[in-house]
Amino acid sequence: MSSPPESVSLVAGTASATGRDAPAAGAPQRYAPTAMALHWIVGLAVLGMIGLGVWMINLPKGVGAFRAEMFNLHKSIGMTVGLLVFARLAWRVTHAAPLLPAALPRWQVLASRFTHHALYACIVIQPLTGVLGSLFSPYPIKYFGRTLPFGSWDIPAAKELMGVVHLANATLLAVLILVHLAAVAYHLCIARDAIFRRMWFAPRD
């Protein structure tokens, strides 16, 4: 289930549509350490979950209990990441994000806004559909080996629907992450501006 470094795409839509307004006095120039920590933890966890998900669905059923254990591990990590995502959203709503640079072209501002909202939507939808799909299955939900006191609703049609949405959303999320990383590489290696430093643990200027 960033996210992706938030230095480019996961930015607040607080800059003007032209991207050329001067930052307000006292506006933060970097993300707060808590926002940075949540960004990198969620981002790396999402990348790991995509890799684990692709690997586990291709495991042959003949491997026996190991396949079920990997699915349960995926679910357990996914629920944990889901909680971190909601913590990140709560922090984002209650804390101002740094404005985009005033010189940023308008199309980059618009692209930043779009990917910001799209990535957040995907990282919320992903754990929700995963949990709902598990609830609609005939099997109990286990969280790192401990059976949770709910689930096993056994609604095949609903489980199938959640599985389709979960897979489609994971695919979209992977594409958005690639776009995000390409933007990061551009700002870090070509534009060489201050965008990446907004979300990196480095001494303040």
Explain this structure to me?
β1 and β2 (146-151) form a beta hairpin. The chain is mainly α and 205 residues long. A two-stranded antiparallel sheet has the order 1-2. It starts with 32 loop residues before the first helix and ends in a 14-residue tail after the last helix. It is 59% helix and 5% strand.
Descriptive keywords:
205 residues; mainly alpha; 2 strands
State the end-to-end CA separation: 32 Å
Mean pLDDT across residues: 86
| Count of β-strands | 2
What general form does the structure show? Answer: elongated
What topology, given as strand order, has the largest sheet? 1-2
Radius of gyration: 19 Å
- Bin the strand percentage: under 5%
The helical percent reads 55-70%
What structural class do you assign from the helix and strand content? mainly alpha
Major beta sheet summary: 2 strands, antiparallel
TL;DR?
With 205 residues, the protein is mostly helical.
SSE map:
Blueprint (H helix, E strand, L loop, with lengths): L32 H25 L7 H30 L11 H30 L4 E4 L2 E6 L4 H36 L14
